[in-house]
Amino acid sequence: LGRLGFLVDISPNELPDKLQRILQGYYSEEKRYLLRAKIIRENQVIHEETAVNEVVIHRWVTPSMIEIITKIDNVFLNSQRSDGLIISTPTGSTAYSLSAGGPILHPSLDALVLVPLNPHTLSNRPIVIADSAEIEISFCQTKQINALVTCDHIEIPEVLISDKILIKKEPKPIRILHPEGHDFFHILRNKLNWSSGYPTPPHVSES
Prior knowledge:
Layout: H1 15-23, E1 27-32, E2 35-41, E3 44-51, E4 54-59, E5 66-72, E6 75-82, E7 84-88, H2 96-99, E8 111-117, E9 127-130, E10 135-139, E11 147-151, E12 154-159, E13 164-169, E14 174-179, H3 184-192
Antiparallel strand pairs: 1-14, 2-3, 2-13, 4-7, 4-11, 5-6, 5-10, 7-8, 8-9, 10-13, 11-12
């Protein structure tokens, strides 16, 4: 659930009462989609992993940057030299992606965000794409790489320079039950300390 706990709606002292209300049917339901990453080697899938938050391709062991080629639905997007690339769901947009300068995506959006990690080209900025897209990551063949792929901090064994990584939304979502009165923007204000020191408008409840 992360250190800030964006998916945690209920404080410990509220748990007995709110859990009882949820069990009685008083809740709102939200669907969150996952990502599936596949490592392709010599046209064979050698490893698969799922992620709720993000898939990260990043340098490993060596301090040198890695050179990444990105395609979206088999259309070339860019080549980049960087420390890596984050592919994040809306759920993950308040996690590692946010720390790397990515935007916050509302959970209802059918979108993914690609966030470069310390890119060598300063104009290389995060980009939001449709979550129906298939993302293909490969590596420039000009230098040896030491790259690692992680899915929500679960490591996939070291990839080779000839490997490809395919990332796509899982067809089946997970279901999250929220207590009555769930407010995503209230959670953002509370977890990120927004509006601290400013008066709350009279029509807004912060309870």
